[in-house]
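PROTEIN DESIGN WORKSHEET
SECTION A - STRUCTURE
LENGTH: 485
TOKENS:
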């Protein structure tokens, strides 16, 4: 009964998180297209230049303590209150630091507007600091339906704000106030739905216990955050704001399906798998499913985006954004390994081994930094190729401890995914040649999507792919239950 209850919670959580991601990403995607048509690449580049500063500050604000609360089995009210006041204090301190550092940031990029933009954008840190614990409590309680509704509401409101300001010619400020409005609306909704108010208590013992888990996660997250956002800083300094805009747009579209899958799978599975952290056999069964089935759906999407990238971008956001297409195509293939990296790390979080996560980051990131600066003299496209290559390097490193703990290392994981790689290779080649006879962008995109779907799922049906069979069974059972009603 307990096993069935856990299964139902996982399915329910995945379903609601899936709804949230599909709806929110779709709405956000549509709003992003409209904004990209009204705004210039430089506007996106200005905001993108600040990404590394905001991301680093957010990493310190959380300090791995949200995951520490989720992973801990005997949480107390004192734990939640302690982390709440820590988050608030750190977020205010970092806002003050960025406020006074804003002139120097503007001088570094030689862009005076960044001084005012930094002061406003950094307000998001304080909003996040006041909300982190409430959001964590919703995750611990597996209240994914609530989080889905909050996400959709905030996106609709922020979309309206951004589009209205862009229409009236506010330029970069449309993006700034759109982001702030989203944070504020989300924060208000989370406070209301969590029904939790912090008490006036702070425990050094509680903080020390949770920070023991979170500190190593903080260090690894900080290294990862700096590396992930360093590209916008380097491109903004070495090239131009427009190039930052092209990179961010290509990176966003390539990362969109990958991030949606990671959020849906890992967000739900972490609090659930944490309950079976001492049962390696159950962990391995869950891990195998988590590895194979989501990627079966993700890989054809990334491959199709890469193949039809040029006509797709032209239709969505116009010819002025076409320079981002080569970046998008390379990153689509690089990000195929990103979910594998995070799935392997997620296992270490579940086992409470943040020390191993930190150890991995200290081994991987010097390679990542070396690749970045080695490719810099050869231009932005070389930078992106290096970034894509690093995704495979990171995956290879992260498999090491998975192999040690569960006996399921890199070769076994790639062996499981090998049939999918063959399927997407065939699908990509057939789709490429199928769209060549057509001239119009709309025709190319339509033919490309249909061809890719028919070829990919046709091959899966013929070879009796395990993931395809699982998905087919779920769909058939779903419709059978509806018909029975």
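SECTION B - SEQUENCE
RESIDUE ASSIGNMENT:
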């Amino acid at each position: 009964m307990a096993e069935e209850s856990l299964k139902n919670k996982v399915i329910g959580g995945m379903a609601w998180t899936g709804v949230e991601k599909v709806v929110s990403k779709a709405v956000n995607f549509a709003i992003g297209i409209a904004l990209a048509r009204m705004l210039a690449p430089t506007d996106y580049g200005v905001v993108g230049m600040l990404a590394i500063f905001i991301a680093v500050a957010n990493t310190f604000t959380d300090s791995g303590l949200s995951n520490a609360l989720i992973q801990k089995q005997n949480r107390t009210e004192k734990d939640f209150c302690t982390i709440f006041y820590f988050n608030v204090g750190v977020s205010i301190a970092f806002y003050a630091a960025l406020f006074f550092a804003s002139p120097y940031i503007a001088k570094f990029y030689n862009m005076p507007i960044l001084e005012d933009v930094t002061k406003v954008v950094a307000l998001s840190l304080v909003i996040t600091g006041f909300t982190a614990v409430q959001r964590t409590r919703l995750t611990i309680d597996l209240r994914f339906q609530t989080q889905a509704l909050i996400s959709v509401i905030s996106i609709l409101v922020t979309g309206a704000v951004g589009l209205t300001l862009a229409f009236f010619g506010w330029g970069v400020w449309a993006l700034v106030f759109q982001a702030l409005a989203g944070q504020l609306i989300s924060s208000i909704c989370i406070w209301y739905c969590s029904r939790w108010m912090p008490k006036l208590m702070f425990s050094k013992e509680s903080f020390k216990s949770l920070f023991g888990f979170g500190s190593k996660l903080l260090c690894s997250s900080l290294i990862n955050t700096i590396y992930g956002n360093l590209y916008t800083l380097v491109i903004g300094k070495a090239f131009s704001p427009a190039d930052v805009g092209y990179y961010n747009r290509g990176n966003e579209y390539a990362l969109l399906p990958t991030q949606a899958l990671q959020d849906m799978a890992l967000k739900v599975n972490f609090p659930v798998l944490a309950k079976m952290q001492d049962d390696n056999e159950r962990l391995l069964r869950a891990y195998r499913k988590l590895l194979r089935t989501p990627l079966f759906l993700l890989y054809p999407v990334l491959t199709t985006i890469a193949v039809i990238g040029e006509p797709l971008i032209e239709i969505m956001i116009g010819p002025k954004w076409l320079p981002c297409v080569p970046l998008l195509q390379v990153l689509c293939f690089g990000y195929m390994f990103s979910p594998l990296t995070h799935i392997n790390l997620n296992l270490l979080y579940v086992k409470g081994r943040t020390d191993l996560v930190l150890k991995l980051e200290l081994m991987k990131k010097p390679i990542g930094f070396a690749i970045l600066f080695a490719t810099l003299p050869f231009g932005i496209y070389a930078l992106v190729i290096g970034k894509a290559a690093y995704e495979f390097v990171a995956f290879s490193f992260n498999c090491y401890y998975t192999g040690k703990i569960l006996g399921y290392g890199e070769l076994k994981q790639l062996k499981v995914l090998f049939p999918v790689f063959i399927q997407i290779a065939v699908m990509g080649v057939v789709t490429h040649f199928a769209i060549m006879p057509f001239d119009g962008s709309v025709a190319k995109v339509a033919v490309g999507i249909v061809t890719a779907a028919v070829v990919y799922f046709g091959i899966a049906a013929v070879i009796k792919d395990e993931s395809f069979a699982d998905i087919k069974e779920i769909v058939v059972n779903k419709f059978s239950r509806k018909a029975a009603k």
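SECTION C - NOTES
Residues 1-238 form one domain.
DSSP finds 21 helices and no strands in the chain.
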